[in-house]
């Protein structure tokens, strides 16, 4: 049975004071050929780990290439799962995780998930009737953009905690985008799977004026996605790539990790300190 609303169905806050977030690893990218990658087949960008740890969560990797039984065992212990961005492959392990999380929520077990950039795109593909054909080419890199809200922020689950501050996203170039693919807003209307599963909450625009979806939230699950990278303003320091490091940008985009970890603290899964230290 589906929860009717991911906020209304959320248990009392702080039933779990040791939240653990699982982050999917992905295959090494073509550029990762240095000696520091010797012996590794997959990775997680450190910015995702730090973004979660800054809100008091611990992080464990959900490793690409491991047997599904290992993945499912980890999923039974963590309190939320992040589907990260990047340029590697974790489609199959992501599908296992997504289906597990959806099933847990259907069974009444509150279990949040978050997808960023590629992770968001994959979650769209998992729920679309068209699968990966739901994607379009939206090749736009190293740019910070404003949001155009398609729902009032106060009427969404992912923005309402910001109050009136949410509208600052519409006024300033704060959301960091770097992606080859994306999803057109109309696709969430014409694809029956997407229309049934997701609410589109905002969009952004290509230089030619073409819109692409920027943020989504599941209608009946605590599952959220962003095309942009909310972790980059506080965690990535590379000159010349147009990340907005203003205090306002950092503060506003930490809202998403705070919200996600807050939700994870209501999940009663347990890793256990001893088990955690041995992974």
Description:
The protein is an alpha/beta fold and 279 residues long. Helices cover 30% and strands 22% of the residues. It is built from 10 helices and 12 strands. The chain has helices at residues 46-53, 68-75, 91-106, 118-127, 168-171, 187-190, 192-197, 232-235, 247-264, 273-278; strands spanning 20-24, 26-27, 42-43, 58-62, 80-83, 113-116, 136-145, 148-149, 175-182, 198-205, 211-218, 223-226. The protein has an 8-stranded mixed β-sheet with strand order 4-1-5-6-12-11-10-8, sandwiched between helices. A two-stranded antiparallel sheet has the order 2-3. Helix 2 packs across helix 3 (91-106) and helix 3 packs across helix 4. The longest helix is centred in the C-terminal third of the chain and has 18 residues, at 247-264. The model has no long low-confidence stretch (mean pLDDT 92).
Write a concise keyword list for the protein shown above.
279 residues; two-stranded antiparallel sheet; 10 helices; 12 strands
Question: Total strand count, please?
Answer: 12
Helical proportion, percent range: 25-40%
Could you spell the SSE succession in H and E letters? EEEHEHEHEHEEHEHHEEEHHH
- Class based on secondary structure composition and strand pairing: alpha/beta
Cα separation of the termini: 34 Å
Number of helices: 10
Strand order of the largest sheet: 4-1-5-6-12-11-10-8
Beta-strand percentage range: 15-25%
Query: Could you list the spans in which at least 5 consecutive residues all have pLDDT below 50?
Result: none
Major sheet details: 8 strands, mixed
Rg estimate, integer Å: 18 Å
What does the overall shape look like?
Answer: globular
| Mean pLDDT, all residues | 92
């Amino acid at each position: 049975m589906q929860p009717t609303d991911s906020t209304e169905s959320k248990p009392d806050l702080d039933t779990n004071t040791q939240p653990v977030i699982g982050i999917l690893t992905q295959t090494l990218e073509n550029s990762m050929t240095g000696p520091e990658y010797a012996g590794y087949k997959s990775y997680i960008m450190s910015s995702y780990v730090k973004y979660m740890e800054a809100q008091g969560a611990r992080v464990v990797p959900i490793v690409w290439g491991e047997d599904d039984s290992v993945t499912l065992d980890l999923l039974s212990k963590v309190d939320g799962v992040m589907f990260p961005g990047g340029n590697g492959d974790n489609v199959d392990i992501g599908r296992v995780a997504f289906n597990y999380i959806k099933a847990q929520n259907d069974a009444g077990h509150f279990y949040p998930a978050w997808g960023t950039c590629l992770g968001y795109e994959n979650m769209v593909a998992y729920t679309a009737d068209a699968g990966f054909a739901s994607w379009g080419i939206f090749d736009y890199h190293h740019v910070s953009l404003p949001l155009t809200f398609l729902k009032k922020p106060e009427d969404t689950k992912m923005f309402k905690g910001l109050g009136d501050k949410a509208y600052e996203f519409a006024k300033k170039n704060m959301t960091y985008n770097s992606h080859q693919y994306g999803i057109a807003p109309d696709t969430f209307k014409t694809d029956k799977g997407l229309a049934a599963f997701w609410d589109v909450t905002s969009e952004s625009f290509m230089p030619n004026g073409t819109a692409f979806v920027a943020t989504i939230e599941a209608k009946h699950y605590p599952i959220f996605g962003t095309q942009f990278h909310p972790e980059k303003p506080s965690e990535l320091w590379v000159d010349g790539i147009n990340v907005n490091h203003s205090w306002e940008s950092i503060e506003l985009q930490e809202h998403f990790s705070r919200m996600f970890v807050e939700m994870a603290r209501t999940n009663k899964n347990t890793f256990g300190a001893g088990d955690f230290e041995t992974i």
